[in-house]
Design a protein that fits this description.
Layout: H1 16-28, E1 46-47, E2 66-70, E3 75-80, E4 84-90, E5 98-100, E6 105-109, E7 113-118, E8 123-129, E9 145-151, E10 157-163, E11 170-175, E12 180-186, E13 191-196, E14 202-207, E15 212-217, E16 223-227, E17 247-248, E18 255-259, E19 263-267, E20 274-278, E21 284-290, E22 296-302, E23 313-317, E24 323-327, E25 335-337, E26 343-347, E27 358-363, E28 369-373, E29 378-383
Length: about 375
Amino acid sequence: MPKFRRPSRATRVLVPGAVAVVLLAGCARGSAATPAGASPTAGSATPGSPATVTPDPGGTVAPGTLLVTDFGSDTVTFVDPARGATGSVEVGTAPYGLAVGEDGRAWVATAEGVAVVDTASRERLALIPYRTDTGPVTTGEYRGGGMGIALAPDGRRAYVGVNVPGGNGALEVVDTAALKVTDVVPVGRRPFDVDVSRDGSEVYATDHDSFDVTVVAAGTLEPRRIEVAPYGTEGGLGSWLKPHYTAVRPSDGKLLLPFEGERLAVVDPRTGRTAIEPMTANTHQHGTTVTADGTLLTVGTGPIDPDADEGPSLTVRTPGGAERVYPLEGPHESVAVSRDGRTAYVTGGFTRDGYWDGLTVVDLGTGDTRRLPAGSRPLGIAVL
């Protein structure tokens, strides 16, 4: 068995009083009132207005353009990696995750519903309301509504993890042609991330507050729970040591979940078994992605204990397990990689305090970094 640092780290939890304070603070960062006209009639898509700023000439998207969700606003922002933001589109309150299809449409999980954006014309085409009752439309870390989102390989379905404050969440299935929710599947608490197997047969909801991944068969929509808790579940909702984001390994379909820059949980979704591999960054980890060759990139948001842990970073891990850690300035949340694999883009819109309005651009060859103003608390990111 590999030797890991500080096994006592599982005792690092928020005391019950602190949990209440954090929950209130998360909601207090934005208005708790429902904006006028924000909640469309259940079961129907609301047409979008062309809330377009600075559209590209000719309705085209330059290769390598980035799209980020503005968790601190109600927009998605287009970003030129060299020049910065080039325009925004209104999508709905507090957008979180996004997925982009081969047809150029972006599917954005907001607090109000799933927004559909034409990235060429830069307009919102529809807002698809959730079937799940998530309470009033709010903002902040603990707001209800969509979190993780992913597309089926054939583009016919979008799967969105819906957070229900104070309870278990749901995986809602969107028919991308009919622009409506067709099915709702129960999952765990706060589905931070949603991923789909390469063949489209399974969907994975990473449930932050219940220490698990819900595996959903795409055909039958039958769910099953796999606990993923390499430090145990002590502390419950107050624990820091919970799963955040998942990457599906291309070589074998196993799920990769980084924890604390110390442990990589490798989950076989077929058997439910988890193997643990050591990591080296020693920092609280959030967003992750994997390239076609199996290289894993993971965002470290910073220390839980400043006396023992390292600061924010980006870990790049080869399929063989070798790691390079790139220090970052300030907390970040999610990461995307350029199509040539040479550059990483890391969003500064951390889900907790310490976020900032921009991206860090990382040259993976030299290790050079530069900060790029972009959007309002940018969280989710995709390369168009």
